[in-house]
Structure to design on (355 residues):
């Protein structure tokens, strides 16, 4: 059954062929689950993990899904599947901050060059729309994951400008940027659950650290909004509340009636105290669309002379960046209520044994 919230997207997806790169990850899986409600002609899951593809095939058991093994780092594996595709959601990425810190060149190959390959093949095969998925860590980045995601955004925007200059009406490139999506693989909530199962204290880096909180359903709504409304070079941000890491740990202890509590372990390499979804400089041109911010590119062309000789008078100092410190803050009661709506937490609660 299609909910009223998503009904607006149905006409754009019925009968379409959709490619999801990284479609076996937590976010890709959620996108696929959302798309299946709209009766697309076919959804192609492109990833390099055959075990996760097998699990997803068994989970959905529908001919509407087609699974393709491949790597976004290799243009050839993308080229052979692009013909006839209407839309692409580019979710394939290296997303773990420690992994990217330890192996930054691998992050560059996947997050930057891989995205470039997807964009190049999409424009070559005249795909109608491509939405890249970015992160709050791409704004004022201090770690390799955020830096490579920021570069991915720049690659998309530059290619979108090129498309606009060439009057290419076939392909629209746009992107989304989101904060912490709740209960994705490798994120803090499943980590907390595993620690509780082992009877260990939850580990908090810094109690005052804040993070955006976005349920998977709202992250799907964000990419569908970008897919149906996006213009070349636009970035779309879903407004989200935030809470402190300490409040998050307290909420999990309360939900699971966990008595062993939590401890502070200190800030790790590459972590910020507060995350940013829209920079102060971007707020100058950002458009407030209710639940979303739309950030158009700074300029539509690739004119070097204009770049050097012309600018715009702005007053960014009068605007505030949209951060996890100044968005709506959830208290303990609010955080508990939000976390209880997460299906994975509901499932864990059913089987959780009090330790």
């Amino acid at each position: 059954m299609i909910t009223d919230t998503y009904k607006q997207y149905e006409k754009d997806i019925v009968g379409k062929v959709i490619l999801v790169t990284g479609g076996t990850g937590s976010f890709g899986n959620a996108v696929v689950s959302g798309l299946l409600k709209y009766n697309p002609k076919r959804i192609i899951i492109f990833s390099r993990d055959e075990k996760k593809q097998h699990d997803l095939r068994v989970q959905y058991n529908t001919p509407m899904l087609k699974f393709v093994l491949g790597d976004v780092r290799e243009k050839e594996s993308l080229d052979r599947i692009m013909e006839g595709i209407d839309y692409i959601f580019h979710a394939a990425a290296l997303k773990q901050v420690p992994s990217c810190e330890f192996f930054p060149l691998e992050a560059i190959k996947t997050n930057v060059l891989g995205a470039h390959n997807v964009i190049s093949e999409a424009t070559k095969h005249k795909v109608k729309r491509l939405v890249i998925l970015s992160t709050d860590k791409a704004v004022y980045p201090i770690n390799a994951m955020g830096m490579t995601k920021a570069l991915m955004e720049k690659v998309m925007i530059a290619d979108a400008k090129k498309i606009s200059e060439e009057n290419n009406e076939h392909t629209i490139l746009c992107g989304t940027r989101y904060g912490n999506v709740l209960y994705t693989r490798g994120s803090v909530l499943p980590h907390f659950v595993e620690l509780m199962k082992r009877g260990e204290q939850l580990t908090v880096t810094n109690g005052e650290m804040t993070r955006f909180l976005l349920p998977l359903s709202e992250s799907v709504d964000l990419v569908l909004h970008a897919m149906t409304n996006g213009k070349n070079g636009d970035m779309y941000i879903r407004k989200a509340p935030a809470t402190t890491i300490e409040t998050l740990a307290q909420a999990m202890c309360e939900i699971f009636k966990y008595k062993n509590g939590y401890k502070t372990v200190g800030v790790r390499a590459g972590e910020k105290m507060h995350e940013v979804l829209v920079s102060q400089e971007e707020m100058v041109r950002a458009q407030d669309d209710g639940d979303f911010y739309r950030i158009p590119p700074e300029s539509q062309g690739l004119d070097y002379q204009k770049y050097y000789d012309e600018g715009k008078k702005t007053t960014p100092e009068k605007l505030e960046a949209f951060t996890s410190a100044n968005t709506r803050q959830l208290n303990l009661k609010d955080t508990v209520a939000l976390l209880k709506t997460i299906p994975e937490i509901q499932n864990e609660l059913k089987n959780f044994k009090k330790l």
